[in-house]
């Protein structure tokens, strides 16, 4: 089949050229139109429910909101995990589905079940399914700057900018943070209300029923008809003031008589501050899952530019995070590496082939294979990102292997063809046919070694599947080209006639000959050195640190701040500004924008004591050191601030850890158990143990944190005597503090809520609150303190559940040490020092969990790949001994990889494992090249001693070319410094280091081993 | 005029065309045989045949009188063939048909 493919290609050369040009054109089109993002889509199918329960404590949220929903959701099919978290006024429920579940199906399931349970939830609970977003969704962040007040800025964002941006294709939502949401505020005067014999619920009913425009049908007026419209909607503060709420004995009571009416703002759950100076209003554009991030950002930018002229004078939009910067730099890093690798590969080709025509033909396959890969990527819906383009960069040296072998053989054959009258096409065909089996077996072997990556699960699977897929696509493309375009181009441009040995081979050849002779003379020394290498590799494996994934430098820094849990929002904002002023003393910091508490949609529901500070850094050229230095300086700057704990992360990294474990941190220890107090005590002990372990940068737990409560224990008998039902008492209290919504005022497009709530004096004075007089349904007045015992207590900040069970979380950030070593030590110490009561258990998670899963999966899949490679070798060579001999080359390839990894100080991570996998393929290929030729020489009747020497010498060039080109193709990745280079560097180090030892051992040890073990006694006798 | 065996070697893809052309000028039956030619004379070969080094040929044979040969050759020459053909005539000593 492959032969007839080559024959057909050579028979229709013009057609092949036209097809190649068309493919190249389509490939360029595919590349230009590929969705571009910094990272692959790493989100699992996740549905988030965010419910707001105004004024409710975490315990109420847990028992009245989360528990009924959890009970309903636990039965949904394909569910992987159900996590929930109850905080003050917020219920956050996350349902992860198994990979491959359709997100729209999953959302429908959740929505159906939620609809079923909504009736059981308290009436004030609002919210529902969060937008379809991923950790990569925060693509664009801006603040509104100018002379407007915070309330006006917020109104501009809510009612002008947000609706405009939501129409941009690919935008899931625009989150509005900070500032004040304007309301019409009704503040009842308790005394006036009591004397008018009215309660807050009377006010609410009156406002709701007195605020409506409606139609009444049509009237006929002669020949015309009139549409009847009854106008009664509230449009202004005056309308509200004059609203009649009661009419008794011919006297009316207006709202203005019993309450102060004015403009106010909704109770704030969060705020945004900027630059240590003042509060700000922030907009955050959330991209839809699967949207082309670059296109979304472009659309947002265009829309904002269009809006700019309609903004009030002096108002500007200040952008402080733009994902396209990261995308540009990440993709730019890989594209640069690709370009440099291509140049290096072409130079090597010219050096090794000594024929610029041959080198040009081979070099032409590089862009062609890349363009074919882009076509495949587009077909498979892969985006161009760090990982997929990185796959191409890794493969670049391997892409030319097939073409090199074909061109080399054609050059060889044509050089002997002078004087023969056989057509050139026939020479090219025969030369290509001869190498079909080794070329396709080689490429299949390399593709096979990458297939295990497709079986990885979780985050590593989502990151590395695109790498494996692009490599496999690129290899398939290169094989197709090697069998079609390469022979066609060779038939056009290669000349017949004798070609001299290239200069580089004239230099290396005699030296290799001498080395080989010395090796055969001192076999024991060679064996000894190889064994030493293996031992050293074993030691290096033990010494090298192990981690999941190197941290990718996104170029941005987020400082997460945690303050005392009882802190008020205003104090928290003041603390944030102090932090910002401290951070701005670091010269590299340009600006700091921080958000505290919960956002408007509730996608990131933090407490008022939690802050994410986004640090804008100056251009790298103005830095005094690297990023670690800058972070160190920031850490130092924050050292002196009391009551504020800080931890450093990056925008995407933060979202990824939240998505994976629901927690931030390298290590997340979850303690499951029923009782909150016991959980808090255990969490405290574990936190203490972890803090003492070398490598802990920050260890946090909120399990021991308590907030202060003003608890009202309702005395049923007392409340009953006043005729006050418990629920009405609770509603009245909420109305005084949190406020009760009572309809909206429509101002054009805007919807301004009407809120009834207590006086500021009551809200800021617990004693006055206890003295508050409420009107009971019976018409009597009763003091709060008469109906309930008022006392200060403490309660939890947050209650977490996983699959319906309570747990306490301890998070640890690790720096300057490998994660696995840290976790091992932590586990040992915790097991020794903490005795768990019955019914309690500990689960170790976080980044470390991924590393464990990835290595377990690779342990299982790599042997399977080895068996497959063995079968391919067996099919290609038809000799068990030869196949085993080639496989024995693998450990020696690992030697260089492990030693170079250890010397460079990089950790053994998933990318490094991918490097080992690539190395395995190349080592096997080199072994195959050599052993196949040995066997051919033996079949031709050459003696064993001569076979190994002659064969090794003749195959020196292909072995050196394959190894050299692959290694040099990776050199640009070693020196790349942009985002994403952290992932590719360990891989490049492993492959380059491994290729050095593997090539050396293939060329020196393998001939010796083949002479000793290559043939059975029977085979040797037959030869 | 003596009878001759007229033999024509043509490319496989020209076979049908030549058979039709010859039948138009000669009533005698034409024997068609497929052949593979391996050799070094690639002057007559098409591109695909040069690639594989193997010429796919058909041999057409018919018995004609000597004076009909020029007509046949003209017909073959005028036919819209793709590739060159080779021909020869061989004198027939005798021939017949047995029922």
Commentary on this structure:
- The complex is a heterodimer of chains A (1023) and B (99).
- Chain A is built from 37 helices and 30 strands.
- Chain A is α+β, with helices and mostly antiparallel strands and 1023 residues long.
- In chain A, a hairpin with a 2-residue loop joins strand 8 and strand 9.
- The two termini of chain A are 32 Å apart.
- In chain B, 27% of the residues lie in helices and 35% in strands.
- Chain B contains 3 helices and 4 strands, in the order E-H-E-H-E-H-E.
- Chain B has a 4-stranded antiparallel sheet with strand order 2-3-1-4.
- In chain B, helix 1 crosses helix 3.
- Chain B is globular.
- Chain B starts with a strand and ends in an 8-residue tail after the last strand.
- At the A-B interface, helix 1 and helix 14 of A face helix 2 of B.
- Chain B: This is DUF3240 domain-containing protein.
- Chain B: It holds the Pfam family DUF3240.
- Chain B: InterPro entries: DUF3240, N-reg_PII/ATP_PRibTrfase_C.
- Chain A: Keywords: Cell membrane, Membrane, Oxidoreductase, Peroxidase, Transmembrane, Transmembrane helix, Transport.
Summarize the structure.
Chain A: Belongs to the resistance-nodulation-cell division (RND) (TC 2.A.6) family. Chain A is an alpha+beta fold and 1023 residues long. Chain A is built from 37 helices and 30 strands.
* CATH-assigned homologous superfamily of the largest domain in chain A: Multidrug efflux transporter AcrB pore domain like
Q: Termini distance of chain A?
A: 32 Å
**Ends apart, CA distance between termini of chain B:** 26 Å
The run of helices and strands of chain B is EHEHEHE
- In the CATH hierarchy, the third-tier topology of chain B is known as Alpha-Beta Plaits
Record field, number of beta strands of chain B: 4
């Amino acid at each position: 089949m492959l032969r007839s493919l080559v024959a057909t290609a050579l028979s229709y050369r013009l057609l092949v050229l036209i097809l190649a040009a068309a493919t190249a054109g389509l490939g360029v089109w595919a590349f230009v139109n590929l969705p571009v993002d910094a990272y692959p889509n790493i989100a699992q199918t996740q549905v988030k429910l965010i419910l707001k329960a105004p004024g409710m404590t975490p315990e109420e949220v847990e028992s009245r909101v989360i528990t009924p929903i959890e009970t309903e959701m636990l039965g949904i099919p394909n569910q992987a995990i159900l996590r929930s978290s109850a905080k003050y006024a917020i219920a956050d429920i996350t349902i992860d589905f198994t990979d491959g579940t359709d997100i729209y199906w999953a959302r429908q399931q959740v929505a159906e079940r939620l609809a079923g349970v909504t009736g059981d939830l308290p009436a004030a609970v609002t919210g529902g399914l969060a937008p379809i977003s991923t950790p990569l969704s925060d693509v664009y962040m801006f603040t509104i700057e100018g002379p407007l007040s915070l309330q006006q800025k917020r109104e501009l964002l809510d009612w002008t900018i947000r609706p405009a941006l939501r129409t941009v294709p690919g935008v899931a939502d625009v989150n509005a943070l900070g500032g004040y949401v304007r309301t019409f505020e009704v503040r009842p005067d308790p005394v006036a209300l009591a004397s008018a014999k009215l309660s807050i619920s009377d006010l609410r009913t009156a406002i709701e029923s007195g605020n409506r425009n409606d139609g009444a049908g049509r009237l006929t007026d002669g020949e015309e008809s009139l549409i009847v419209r009854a106008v009664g909607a509230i449009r202004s503060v005056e309308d509200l003031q004059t609203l009649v709420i009661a009419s008794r004995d011919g006297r009316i009571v207006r709202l203005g008589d019993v309450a102060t009416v004015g403009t106010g703002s909704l109770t704030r759950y969060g705020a945004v501050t900027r630059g240590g100076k003042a509060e700000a209003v922030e907009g955050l554009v959330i991209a839809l899952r699967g949207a082309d991030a670059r296109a979304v950002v472009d659309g947002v930018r265009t829309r904002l530019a269009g809006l700019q002229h309609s903004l009030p004078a002096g108002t500007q939009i200040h952008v402080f995070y733009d994902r396209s910067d990261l995308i540009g730099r990440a993709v730019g890093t890989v594209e640069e590496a690709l370009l440099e690798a291509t140049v290096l590969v072409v130079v090597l080709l010219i050096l090794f082939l000594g024929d610029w025509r041959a080198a040009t033909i081979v070099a032409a396959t590089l862009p062609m294979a890349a363009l074919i890969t882009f076509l495949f990527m587009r077909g498979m819906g892969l985006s161009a990102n760090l990982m997929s383009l990185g796959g191409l960069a890794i493969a670049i040296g391997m892409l030319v292997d097939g073409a090199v072998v074909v061109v080399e053989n054609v050059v060889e054959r044509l050089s002997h063809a002078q004087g023969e009258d056989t057509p050139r096409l026939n020479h090219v065909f025969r030369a290509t046919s001869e190498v079909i089996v080794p070329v396709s077996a080689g490429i299949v072997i390399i593709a096979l070694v990458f297939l295990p990556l497709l079986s990885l699960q979780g985050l590593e699977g989502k990151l590395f599947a695109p790498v494996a897929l692009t490599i496999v696509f690129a290899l398939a493309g290169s094989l197709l080209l090697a069998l079609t375009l390469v022979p066609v181009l060779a038939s056009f441009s290669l000349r017949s006639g004798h070609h001299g040995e290239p200069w580089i081979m004239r230099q290396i050849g005699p030296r290799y000959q001498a080395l080989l002779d010395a090796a055969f003379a001192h076999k024991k020394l060679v064996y000894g050195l190889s064994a030493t290498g293996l031992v050293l590799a074993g030691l290096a494996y033990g010494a090298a640190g192990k981690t999941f994934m190197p941290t990718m430098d996104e170029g941005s820094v987020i400082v997460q701040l945690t303050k005392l849990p009882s802190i008020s929002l205003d104090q928290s904002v003041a603390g944030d500004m102090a932090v910002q002023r401290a951070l701005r003393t670091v010269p590299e910091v340009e600006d700091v924008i921080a958000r505290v508490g919960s956002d408007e949609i509730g996608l990131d529901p933090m407490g008022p004591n939690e802050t994410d500070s986004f640090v804008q850094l100056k251009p790298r050229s103005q830095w005094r050191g690297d990023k670690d230095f800058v972070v160190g300086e920031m850490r130092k700057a924050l050292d002196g601030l009391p009551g504020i704990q800080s931890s450093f992360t990056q925008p995407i990294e933060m979202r990824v850890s939240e998505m994976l474990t629901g927690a931030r941190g390298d290590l997340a220890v979850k303690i499951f158990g029923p009782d909150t107090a016991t959980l808090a005590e255990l969490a405290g002990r574990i936190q203490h143990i972890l803090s003492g372990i070398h490598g802990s940068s920050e260890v946090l737990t909120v399990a021991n944190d308590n907030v202060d409560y003003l608890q009202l224990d309702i005395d049923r008998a007392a409340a009953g005597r006043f005729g006050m039902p418990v629920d009405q008492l609770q509603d009245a209290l909420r109305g005084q503090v949190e406020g009760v919504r009572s309809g909206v005022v429509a101002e054009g497009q805007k919807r301004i809520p009407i809120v009834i709530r207590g006086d500021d004096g009551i809200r800021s004075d617990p004693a006055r609150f206890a003295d508050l007089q409420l009107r009971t349904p019976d018409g009597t007045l009763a003091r709060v303190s008469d109906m309930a015992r008022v006392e200060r207590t403490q309660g939890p900040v947050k209650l977490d559940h996983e699959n319906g069970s309570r747990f306490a979380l301890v998070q640890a950030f690790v720096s300057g040490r490998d994660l696995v070593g840290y976790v091992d030590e932590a586990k040992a110490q915790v097991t020794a020092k903490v005795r768990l009561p019955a019914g309690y258990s500990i689960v170790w998670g976080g980044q470390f969990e991924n590393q464990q899963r990835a290595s377990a999966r690779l342990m299982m899949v790599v042997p399977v790949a080895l068996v497959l490679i063995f079968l391919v070798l067996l099919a290609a060579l038809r000799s068990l001994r030869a196949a085993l001999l080639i496989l024995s080359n693998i450990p020696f390839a690992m030697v260089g990889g492990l030693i170079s990894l250890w010397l460079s100080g990089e950790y053994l991570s998933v990318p490094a494992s991918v490097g080992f996998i690539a190395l395995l393929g190349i080592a096997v290929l080199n072994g195959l090249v050599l052993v196949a030729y040995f066997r051919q020489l033996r079949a031709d009747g050459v003696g064993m001693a001569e076979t190994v020497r002659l064969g090794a010498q003749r195959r020196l060039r292909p072995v050196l070319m394959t190894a050299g080109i692959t290694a040099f193709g990776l050199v640009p990745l070693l020196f790349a410094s942009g985002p994403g280079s952290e992932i590719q560097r360990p891989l490049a180090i492993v492959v380059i280091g491994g290729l050095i030892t593997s090539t050396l051992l293939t060329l020196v040890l393998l001939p010796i081993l083949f002479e000793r073990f290559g043939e059975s006694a029977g085979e040797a006798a037959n030869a | 005029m003596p009878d001759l065996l007229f033999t024509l070697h043509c490319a496989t893809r020209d076979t049908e065309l030549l058979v039709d052309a010859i039948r138009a000028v000669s009533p005698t039956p034409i024997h068609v045989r497929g052949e593979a030619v391996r050799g070094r004379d690639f002057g007559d070969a098409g591109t695909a045949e040069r690639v594989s080094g193997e010429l796919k040929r058909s041999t057409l044979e018919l018995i004609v009188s000597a004076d009909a040969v020029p007509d046949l050759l003209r017909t073959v020459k005028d036919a819209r063939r793709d590739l060159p053909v080779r021909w020869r005539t061989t004198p027939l000593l005798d021939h017949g048909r047995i029922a």
